[in-house]
From TrEMBL, chain A:
InterPro entries: 6-hairpin_glycosidase_sf (IPR008928), 6hp_glycosidase-like_sf (IPR012341), GH15-like (IPR011613), Trehalase-like_N (IPR045582). GO terms for biological process: carbohydrate metabolic process. Gene3D superfamilies: 1.50.10.10. GO terms for molecular function: hydrolase activity, hydrolyzing O-glycosyl compounds. It holds the Pfam family TREH_N. Coiled coil: none annotated. Transmembrane segments: none annotated. This is Glycosyl hydrolase.
From TrEMBL, chain B:
Keywords: Membrane, Transmembrane, Transmembrane helix. It comes from Streptomyces dysideae. This is DUF1440 domain-containing protein. The chain crosses the membrane at residues 54-75, 82-103. The lineage of its organism: Bacteria, Bacillati, Actinomycetota, Actinomycetes, Kitasatosporales.
């Protein structure tokens, strides 16, 4: 596991080790279709094009030599400070050198009324003081670094093409572009008030758009205004307002605008253990996250996103109905075959994968998540039409047949299936929500009696087989003696109220056995994979929310304060964190971490939901 | 050739086309739902969208039937197989241009590959040949349009 100091001193310039910066050095920029990762040293090391789940053109974060990147930095030693422009997903990085100061503004622009490139990455360079020598380079590697690019100049603009993909490197006051067989680069100097611009215009299965400078400048301003307008319409109050706002913006980056789906993270194969094999593709939408996602959208005042997500969820699950896949592609497809990429992996963390074999697993908790999501949607006035109501009823019927089976659980273990307690709790939630929807006449009530009988049978199973009197806690799986942080979801999704002694004992046991300061590990038992992992950030936020709901507000607020400090310098969270050194582990930015933050902050602000 | 027969054939053809697509949905072959796609252009209420969509779909079915009738008149010949040929062209047009390009242009709730933040689409874009709605969608759609064309052709050619 990565150890040592992971948090650079304020203003520090990140050291690259074997070409890699620590994962917490990355900020994310996006346009609702794709997301780029920008390192603190000014390198864009990750960018799939045209969509978030497409093949990459820059993937240096997974292979510093062959992945491809777009660098932009001073050629002299410098200190770095950066932030998001307030209320936006536009990144501002300031390099301070002995010779002067320069500011870079990075954005994936959103279309305006002009002819817009299919995707556009803009990098504006402003001289603030003195004279700073700068260098930049663009080394596109299409298809996850597997397809050799072809570099030519068209009407004075360097163009890199490869099959149906192409990128034009448009520059203004950024020095004369030098083209080699594999890269385009340039050098220039800044002076006070100078303004250079590098715009990468991407095309996929269509001709390139070569924008004029004025159009680019206007589009960057339009992008900032669009983000600010969006955030201005959201409801993000409370003592952790800044963190909630940043989380809302991070989530919005992960919403795939063409379909309304939300990706679990923007990246693939960032390791849960540096040097290990726990490297997964998270550029899919997990049913597991659906209830938290809808809840967050509704709490933040995002009705459009909430409706779009629910509609997408219902469309995506239609082909596999009544069975659910663990995850679906952002376009609603169900297939996600896993394969290994010809990339080294972040700091040698091989294999680098795309696709996700977990899609084929049986995870019973997904049914509870789906019905909880439908319940929330309906309770907020979302209409359930006859087709959806029928499907919800059929899903509940399926849960009646399936709940006795062992499964892979929320954590998608690759060991043998077990009777995971959290899965059973979510089956109870599924049948409970279906019964309540039937009582409200929102779904057909023909089988409601059976749902209620099976709901009681699930509860009997959990209370007799999934509780340890010795630990005074629910346990990871039937007849085991381990605890599991996912049990907190039993409380958060309403399997048991917070004043139930068994649930209070479970919260205490998780804190005692899986907690490590503000960190919480997922579990301690076998998961069928070698190696270890960091602490799971969402679990820490779930614990915070559980404490708040149990009425332990002071403890919860204290934990929340500690967790807020674990974000990186721009307020983003990855999936996991190394308790020893604070290094980010796993894919980023991670939707579940930010969703759990929003949920915990709301619970605390509201004084703990009943 | 009788325009009444063309309209009758168009009505039955649309009924069969819609039923085939619906059956394919029930068989988990595709997520395409043409009446819903059409109706949701006018309302976000799913129930109303489907009702309105069926009305629109049958109206459009009649308009296409008149188009087929005009082509038959121009060629001076009508038959089920010629109707099927028109259905093939019609199905290809629907899968590539009509639903994939024209509909997203006028549909306020449908995404396109260019839909970006801060907007968010309520309906996912169909994609090339409507493949986003399931891998079997082009085949199902084409088969349904072949049946539609054949029925119109047969109706006109068999009418006295």
């Amino acid at each position: 596991m990565e150890t040592g100091s992971a948090q650079p001193a304020a203003g520090g310039y990140p050291e690259r080790r074997d070409g890699y910066v620590p994962l917490r050095e990355y900020a994310a920029i996006g346009d609702g279709r794709t997301v780029a990762l920008v390192a603190r040293d000014g390198a864009v090391d990750w960018l799939p094009v045209p969509d978030l789940d497409s093949a990459t053109v820059f993937a240096a974060v997974l292979d510093s030599r062959h992945g491809g990147s777009c660098t932009l930095q001073p050629t002299v030693p410098c200190a770095v400070d950066r932030r998001y422009l307030p209320g936006t997903n536009v990144l501002e990085t300031t390099f301070t050198t002995a010779r002067g100061t320069v500011r870079i503004t990075d954005a994936m622009t959103v279309p305006d009324t002009r002819l817009t490139p299919m995707r556009e990455l803009q990098r504006r360079v402003e001289g603030l003081s003195g004279s700073v020598p700068m260098r930049w380079s663009v080394t596109p590697r299409f298809g996850y670094g597997s397809r050799p690019p072809r570099i030519r100049t068209r009407r004075g603009v360097p163009v890199v093409s490869c099959g149906a993909d192409a990128v034009a490197v448009c520059t203004w006051q950024a020095g004369r572009p030098q083209c080699t067989e594999s890269a385009i680069s340039g050098r220039f100097g800044t002076r006070p008030g100078s303004r250079a611009l590098i715009a990468l215009s991407f095309a996929h299965e269509e001709p390139l758009v070569l924008p004029a400078r004025a159009e680019c400048e206007a589009r960057l301003d339009h992008t900032c205004a669009a983000w600010r307008r969006w955030l201005g319409e959201r409801a993000c109050g409370g003592p952790w307002q800044q963190a909630v706002q940043r989380s809302a913006l991070a989530l919005k980056l992960l919403v795939f605008a063409p379909s309304g789906a939300i990706a679990a993270a923007a990246t693939s194969s960032l390791p849960e253990q540096v040097g290990g094999i726990r490297n997964w593709d998270y550029r899919f939408s997990w049913i597991r996250d659906s209830a938290f996602t809808l809840d967050a959208f509704l709490r933040l005042g995002c009705p459009h996103e909430a409706h779009a997500y629910f509609w997408w969820l219902m469309h995506a699950t239609q082909l596999t109905h009544p069975r659910l896949r663990v995850l679906y592609r952002l376009d609603g497809g169900a297939r996600a075959p896993e394969r290994t990429l010809p990339l080294q992996g972040y700091r040698g963390s091989a294999p680098a994968r795309v696709g996700n074999a977990a899609a084929d697993q049986l995870q019973l908790d997904t049914y509870g998540e789906l019905l909880q999501t439908a319940w929330q949607y309906a309770q907020h006035g979302g209409p359930l039409d006859a087709d959806i109501a029928r499907r919800i009823a059929e899903t509940a019927d399926l849960v009646c047949r399936l709940w006795r089976e062992p499964d892979a659980g929320l954590w998608e273990v690759r060991s043998r299936p077990l009777h995971f307690t959290q899965s059973k709790m979510m089956c109870w939630v599924a049948l409970d929500r279906a019964s309540r929807l039937a009582e409200q006449r929102l779904v057909p009530a023909r089988h409601a009696d059976r749902w209620r009988q099976e709901r009681q049978a699930v509860r009997d199973f959990i209370e007799t087989r999934c509780f340890s009197a010795r630990k005074h806690s629910y346990i990871r799986a039937a007849d085991s003696e381990e605890v599991d942080a996912s049990l907190l979801l039993g409380l958060l999704h309403g399997y048991a109220p917070p004043d139930q002694p068994r649930m209070r004992g479970t919260v205490e046991a998780i804190r005692r056995e899986l907690g490590d300061g503000p960190f919480v590990h997922r579990y301690t038992g076998d998961d069928g994979l070698p190696g270890s992992e960091g602490a799971f950030l969402a679990c820490s936020f779930w614990l915070t929310e559980a404490l708040a709901r149990c009425g332990r507000h002071a403890e919860a607020a204290d934990l929340m304060d500690q967790l807020i400090t674990l974000a990186n310098d721009v307020g983003l969270y990855s999936e996991e964190i190394d308790p020893a050194g604070g290094a980010f582990l796993g894919n980023l930015p991670q939707a579940l971490s930010h969703l759990a933050l929003i949920s915990a902050a709301c619970a605390l602000t509201e004084g703990g939901r009943p | 050739m009788s325009v009444t027969a063309a309209l009758a054939g168009g009505f039955v053809g649309t009924l069969v086309l819609t039923t085939m697509l619906r059956a394919a949905g029930e068989l988990r072959l595709t997520r395409i739902d043409l009446p819903f796609l059409l109706g949701s252009a006018f309302t976000a209420n799913r129930t109303r969208a489907k009702a309105l969509g069926y009305l629109l779909h049958f109206t459009i079915g009649q308009l296409f039937a008149l188009g087929y009738y005009t082509l038959f008149l121009a060629l001076g010949h009508s038959s089920w197989w010629l109707g099927m040929l028109f259905g093939l062209a019609h199905g290809m047009f629907a899968g590539t241009i009509l639903v994939n390009i024209l509909l997203p242009l006028v549909h306020p709730r449908m995404g396109t590959p260019l839909t970006s933040a801060p907007a968010v689409a309520l309906l996912e874009p169909p994609g090339f040949l409507m493949l986003n709605y399931g891998l079997a969608t082009p085949i199902v759609s084409l088969a349904a349009h072949l049946a539609y064309g054949a029925l119109i052709g047969a109706s006109i050619s068999l009418a006295p």
